[in-house]
Write the structure tokens for this entry.
Amino acid sequence: MATIGVLALQGDFREHREVLEGLGAVVHEVRLQKDLERLDGLVIPGGESTTIVRLMRTSHLLEPLRRLAADNFPIWGTCAGMILLAKRLDDTGIPALEAMDIAVRRNAFGRQVDSFEADLFVPVLGDQPFHAVFIRAPIIEAVGPGVEVLARLPDGAPVAARQGQLLATAFHPELTSDHRFHQFFLRRITQPT
Ligand code: GLN
């Protein structure tokens, strides 16, 4: 089974850990550069992206993570994690891994709708809709040619995408009992196409 790192600097890394372990993965919490050894994939959780990028710098993780992402190492960013993967950000964001060819706007739904839930059609997960929880969520405003959009809101805005082995979701699959996104991430690691 796969060994997955969960970046554990800030945010909801414990929830990811529990889901991944429930699916049989070995999970290592990543706080230091040495924690990146012998991993098959990495999850960057939701939280506060500006805090996480600052902690990445002080923990000397930013450069090693940038190299992994540039080498197409499997990395999945949820919510703040998606912001940290993006190549282009609105002017409130701090560039981090700059690996995925997506333009992302932080806190895209404004204060009135800080959090909401939506049933998404996600063809790579099958016919059953995926119930997605959005919390002060970012949105993907544009995608480059190598990026495949995996899910959209009813108004057409992309909220999940992949580029090679990089995966990004604007919402929090670790907060619901539907684990198909985690299974999808693990499957792409153990059976890359
Ligand atoms: N609003 C947060 C940010 O900009 C992301 C929110 C989340 O991860 N739930 O970093």
Q: What stands out?
A: Residues 46-49, 79-80, 83, 106-107, 135-136 surround glutamine (CB under 6 Å). Residues 126 and 170 are 19 Å apart (CA to CA).
